[in-house]
From TrEMBL:
Pfam families: ABC_tran. Keywords: ATP-binding, Nucleotide-binding, Transport. This is ABC transporter ATP-binding protein [Lactobacillus paraplantarum]. One of its GO terms (molecular function) is ATP hydrolysis activity. Gene3D superfamilies: P-loop containing nucleotide triphosphate hydrolases. SUPFAM superfamilies: P-loop containing nucleoside triphosphate hydrolases (SSF52540). The keyword Cell wall biogenesis/degradation does not apply. It comes from the Bacteria. It comes from Lactiplantibacillus mudanjiangensis. Residues 4-210 form the ABC transporter domain.
Length: 210
């Protein structure tokens, strides 16, 4: 059974077609990456899948039809556009606060994610003093907190150095081996080639499987 199914999904705003007749299915256990140039529609595809924008056509998650305003049918970890972080708190506190909203996250998982993303475990450095790359890593760690069955990352390599990108790819592959499905939007071709096991090209609102 497919985890995500889009049938004839389109999005128009004031007569402008932003997504045009998108048809795709993604199964559990895939690392599906949407590649495309700036403004091609990658983020809109992710938002459509999450029910964050109204579209025509049909979207099914776990065989359940997605309706605007309904709760998303499965637990998903999400980083779309910029990381949503609380500036006045440390990275660790940000994860602790998010953990309160999730079932069964313990302190060990928070420390493991901070270590994985080379973020401070101790100390008082607030997020407002973080570098761009540190913020990005915290945003990704937030999406990975709570072992969601689906993790959605929009441009995860933004602001990351080459070594951090390699660590991220290895970690995505590790989580994927444990069963996590990933949906990723990226214009970083090298990253896409290394990380994906399904590739889609997004071009002017059309989605093509590569
Ligand atoms: N709410 C909206 N109203 C009108 N146009 C929109 C809206 N949201 C997005 N767009 C337009 O839709 C197109 C696709 O946007 P989208 O954010 O999906 O691009 P993207 O492929 O993610 O680009 P980037 O790589 O720059 O993040 C862009 O031309 C954008 O200006």
């Amino acid at each position: 059974m497919s985890l995500i199914e889009l049938t004839h999904v389109s999005k128009k705003v004031k007569g402008q077609v932003l997504l045009e007749d998108v048809n795709l299915t993604i199964s559990s256990g895939e690392i599906a990456v949407f590649e495309g140039i700036n403004g091609s529609g990658k983020t809109l595809v992710l938002k459509a899948i999450l029910g964050l924008i109204r579209t025509s056509g049909q979207i099914k998650i776990n065989d359940q039809q997605l309706k605007a305003g309904d709760a998303f049918p499965i637990q998903a970890g999400i980083m779309i556009e910029n990381p949503s972080v609380l500036e006045e708190f440390t990275g660790k506190r940000n994860l602790e606060l998010l953990a309160k909203l999730l079932p069964s996250v313990d302190n060990a998982q928070i420390e493991q994610l901070l270590t994985q993303f080379e973020l401070p475990i101790d100390g008082h450095k607030r997020v407002k003093k973080f570098s761009l790359g540190m913020r990005q890593k915290l945003g990704i760690a937030q999406a990975m907190l709570g072992n969601s069955e689906l993790i959605i990352l929009d441009e995860p390599t933004n602001a990351l150095d080459a070594e951090s990108i390699d660590r991220l790819i290895a970690y995505i592959h590790e989580l994927n081996k444990q069963g996590t499905t990933f949906l990723i939007a990226s214009h970083d071709r090298e990253f896409v080639t290394k990380v994906a096991n399904r590739q889609f090209l997004v071009k002017a609102g059309h989605v093509y499987e590569n």
